[in-house]
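User: I'll paste a sequence; please echo it back and then give the predicted structure.

Assistant: Echoing your sequence first, then the prediction.
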Amino acid sequence: MQGKWVKAVILLLGMTAVIFSSSCKRQATDTLSVYDIESEISQCMTNYSEMEDCSEEYLSEIFQINTDDTVELVSKRSLDTHIDQFGILKQKDEESACEMAKKINGSIENLKREWDGRYFSEENAKISAARAESFGKYVVFAVLDAKETDTVMKKLEEIVY
């Protein structure tokens, strides 16, 4: 009899742990197109209308990345300065999204070292604020002023989660 109670308590504790852990983890959507996300993010950007599309090859060259695990991507850069740019990549899974964000951030750090002091202070500030983050299967990178970069990251987080 006592053995049945022990088994029941263990089963109950196990089920409680599963329910608790699944309710604490945020579930990311992965059904959105990067173009739908871009449409939402573009409304937060001051100079979006002055940006042009960038190719996958451009991204691969600038950030030294391999896009084999990329399902879909969109990337824009400023026609004016070519410093302002952002992009959204949808990866095959969350692990590859995390790895892609790390690779892009590594390239951004290299750019920061190479570009320091070469450009106007406004442009250097944008390079300093540049970063990439992963949200589920999505990766967003931004080379914009600090406030706009933060806004883009927060907007993607709102959209994906």
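The mean pLDDT is 85. The helical segments are 2-24, 34-42, 56-63, 94-115, 121-129, 146-160.
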